[in-house]
Amino acid sequence: xxxxxxxxxxxxxxxxxxxxxxxxxxPNGLAAAAWLARAGWEVDVFERGDSPGGAAASADVLGAxxxxxxxAAAHPxxxxxxxxxxxxxxxxxLEWLHSDYPxxxxxxxxxxxxxxxxxxxxxxxxxRDGAAWKRVHGHLVRNIDDHxxxxxxxxxxxxxxxxxxxxxxxxxxxxxxATGKALFSGEAARALFAGSAVHALLPPGRPFTSAFGxxxxxxxxxxxxxxxxxxxxxxxxxxxxxxxxxxxxxxTGVEVRDLRALPAAEATILNLTPAxxxxxxxxxxxPRVRRRLAGWTYGPxxxxxxxxxxxxxxxxxxxxxxxxxxxxxxxxxxxxxxEEAAARxxxxxxxxxxxxxxxxxxxxxxxxxAAGTQVLWTYAHVPNGYREPRPGLVxxxxxxxxxxxxxxxxxxxxxxxxxxxxxxxxxxxxxxxxDIAGGGMGGxxxxxxxxxxxxxxxxxxxxxxxxxxATPPGAGVHGVPxxxxxxxxxxxxxxxxxGSGHRNGRH
Length: 507
Hints:
This protein has helices at 27-38, 76-80, 82-86, 119-125, 130-142, 144-151, 162-172, 176-183, 187-197, 209-222, 233-245, 274-279, 287-294, 332-343, 393-405, 409-412, 421-427, 480-496, and strands at residues 19-23, 42-47, 58-59, 68-69, 96-97, 101-107, 110-115, 227-228, 249-252, 267-270, 301-309, 323-328, 353-356, 374-382, 413-419, 464-466. It has 507 residues and is α/β, with parallel strands linked by helices. The strands form four sheets. It has a seven-stranded mixed sheet, with helices on both faces. A five-stranded parallel sheet has the order 9-2-1-10-16, covered by helices on one side. Helix 8 runs antiparallel to helix 9 (187-197) and helix 8 (176-183) packs across helix 10. It is globular and about 65 Å long. The model is unreliable at 1-15 and 497-502 (pLDDT under 50).
């Protein structure tokens, strides 16, 4: 579908309002739109799907009365996001809800490891490892905003809080397995730390995974890992409300393949990953930028299965039922083996399974004909683009993993909906091969997104910008890449426009 024709805005004599066009209405595209609209820009957002949100969406795919998060589910970065706070999403209907425990990690033949919304309570539950847990996480929990200032932006810059960065960096570069083995004596603390580290979509034996173990744990113990009341769609609805209340326009069902089809604008912001940018026509990318984007690689994928249960999950440790996020993976050794297999292109026999029980915080997820049932959101880490040799293989492995810690789960399943990596990427092309991070997190890609550049949001000048999980600080529903790209555009127009109404040359 070709974007409709837009007339230039009719402005009073002597006045000029800059315009931005944004491709992709995921959280980053919408955050960029909201940031620019609040700054007085004319904003048009073009979305390929029938509704805004990208992978941050919810629907009743398990039947009438159910609310299922189609992608992102729990939001440790969303509740802590300085961008969402600045945009005042709470005034536009967004409400965060917390369960008793942000995260649980069930273990065989012993009680589950639990992350509390308190450093002291979490440490108390870890027994003899409690003191070491406090040493690792204490400075992060006490100074979480300073650390987020440092970490929610490009790595190739001087940190806003150098002392805090030095505190963080002392352990951050180490593999999570090494940190756990050196500092913790029990399996509970080691597994709790490694499970958080795997949010990097990397084996916890790889360098820099301790950074994720520390940060995700600290977020849970300071801000929590909440869900949005009514589903992740509520985050998108709040962003849409900000955009439209400031006069921005969102156009759905519009697939942009050629930038010449878009209206003239001072800034064109792409909420896309590098492979998608390279497929666009007439981007006028400089050769050095094109080469950098062409070198971008994608990481392991996820295989998503949503379940409707006729009652709660029968966890062997009942406390796990009061956690919104559950890492179903077993011991640290099992986590490492599973993640290495997925990274090397093999389906793990016992995959790392991410589980969300949103109803532990938000009872509204089932109602009416679905009252009394439970939605169980899961995915397993699998090789990028993995295709099952027979239907139901991965769902069977997911259920087998959960059954280890919740005997009788299968007897509770009344309905399941499965989405392979190919199906996820067909639904949302940003999820290439099922990669939910916008690009692999291994090697230099963890630190240098999208590649070796000190200017990650600008695509070589000409008013073209990148705002996706392929830019710092990476994936997550927090809107930071979108806001940073918008800030870059505002800065550039402020330097060059001087009221001239200049439009970029592609149009």
